[in-house]
Design goal:
The protein is of the alpha/beta class. 24% of the residues lie in helices and 12% in strands. The chain contains seven helices and nine strands; from the N terminus they run H-E-E-E-H-H-E-E-H-H-E-H-E-E-E-H.
Length: 263
């Protein structure tokens, strides 16, 4: 009850934050739940802190913004990190970027997706990318990424490219990117130079460039994978390929002579 009274006294709720400029300073920190979130500038008032809701328990102060760009079917469902997440959203006292201004979430602020897509490339595969693109339009000068690695072998591995792309775009426009030195893999993995340090004297990939195929044994939990054993390159196991320009079939015999029958 106290939560709803507090929102009622504000009257406007998320409406008060629903128009630009959204960020109160020229320094924006995007924070997530991975280990280097501890290096975020929590107590520096010159930084605006934007946090994914799943990282709230790691915050050292209430952030200036939350963001959850998922569909209602997702944010209305219990989370493994907060089984009462939907109720928490409805009682939130901090503005949160969402797809729409949902009536049951008074502090919801509609993300200006049309404005963003009109001006820049539609390449968004994670929450941090949405925040970076908006910050660029707001004239933010410095962006920090803390606790957002997108390195897990899950959906996150397909989301990371967009984060790296937008950080590059931001630097191209003259912005400064701040990344933790410790526990960081964003724009830092592999840390060695391809071509110069990616192969050994025998021409084999080495270090972080060396492929590490993994499989999960039946019944094993995520994170308990073992090296995969890949069998012979049978016709059934071969990946489909496009036809060659002259219409010929791929020369699998030559491939096997060069690389062997095993992948």
């Amino acid at each position: 009850m106290a939560f709803s009274v507090g929102i009622k006294r504000r009257i406007t709720g998320g409406v008060a934050y629903g128009r630009p400029p959204y960020f109160r300073t020229m320094f924006l920190a995007n924070t997530g739940p991975t280990e280097n979130v501890i290096f975020a500038p929590w107590h520096d008032p010159t930084w605006t802190i934007a946090t994914h809701c799943s990282a709230r328990e790691f915050c050292e102060r209430e952030p200036d913004w939350y963001f959850d760009m998922h569909r209602p079917e997702l944010f209305r469902s219990p989370k493994n990190w907060n089984e009462h997440y939907y109720s928490w959203l409805k009682h939130l006292q901090t503005p949160i970027f969402m797809q729409e201004r949902y009536k049951e979430i008074p502090m919801a602020v509609r993300y200006p997706i049309e404005r963003v897509l009109q001006e820049i490339r539609a390449y968004f595969t994670n929450h941090a990318a949405f925040m970076i693109a908006l910050a660029m339009q707001e004239g933010v000068k410095t962006i920090g990424i803390f606790g957002c690695q997108y390195s897990a072998d899950t959906e996150h591995s397909t989301q990371r490219g967009s984060l790296e792309y937008w950080l590059g775009r931001f630097e191209q426009y003259g912005g400064e990117v701040v990344l933790p030195v410790k526990y960081n893999t964003v724009l830092n993995f592999p840390s060695t130079l391809y071509g110069y340090e990616s192969h050994d004297e025998k021409g084999n990939l080495c270090g972080d460039y060396k492929p590490k195929p993994r499989i999960r044994p039946a019944g094993a939990k995520p994170g308990h994978e073992v090296p995969a054993k890949i069998g012979p390159l049978t016709p059934e196991a071969r990946a489909s390929v496009k036809s060659l320009p002259n219409g010929d079939a791929p020369d699998w015999a030559r491939y096997e002579r060069l690389y062997g029958k095993d992948v």
